[in-house]
């Protein structure tokens, strides 16, 4: 068993969680009919600051070494998401991300990898644009000029760069 796997197993044997999915924002550029957190333009009241998020990571480390999935809302809307990911990585956690992929481009994928994010799970409604059109998931016009109805800009390259196992 390698060291990181042993950390997870030891955490579980101490009663700690194996995986934590953490909604670090409730903002999102999309408007999905099926959104279970009703994400949108407004941030949640009392959302954690960068320092508070790092303090939560410190508390998580006291439970063991679970996998921590930064999610939302759209986590890439937080400017400090790379700082939070790096902090968790440096504390020995396996950091991951759940994203719509809407804001993911090559540069962002490289920054994610550099911050230690190990895996990015991207939700795709369908690989078939005809089927995807039947799923009510539309860009939200945040601010003055939002994106129009378009294909999600998730490229094969950015996906392969950001999905690092
Ligand atoms: S992409 Fe996810 S967080 Fe955003 S509106 Fe859709 S379901 Fe909600």
Distance between the termini: 17 Å
| Shape estimate | globular
Annotated CATH homologous superfamily: Aldolase class I
**Quick check: average pLDDT?**
82
Q: How large, in whole angstroms, is the Cα Rg?
A: 17 Å
Helix content: 25-40%
Largest sheet: 4 strands, parallel
Helix-strand pattern: HEEHEHEHEHEH
Compute the number of helices.
6
Order of strands in the sheet with the most strands? 1-3-4-5
Short descriptors:
single chain, 165 residues, alpha/beta, TIM Barrel, four-stranded parallel β-sheet, two-stranded antiparallel sheet, 32% helix, 16% strand, disordered C terminus, binds iron/sulfur cluster
What does this structure look like?
This protein is α/β, with parallel strands linked by helices. Helix 2 runs parallel beside helix 3. The C terminus is likely disordered. Strands 1-3-4-5 form a four-stranded parallel sheet, covered by helices on one side. A two-stranded antiparallel sheet has the order 2-6. The radius of gyration is 17 Å and the shape is globular. The chain has a single domain, classed as TIM Barrel. The protein contains six helices and six strands. It binds iron/sulfur cluster (SF4). Iron/sulfur cluster binds next to strand 2.
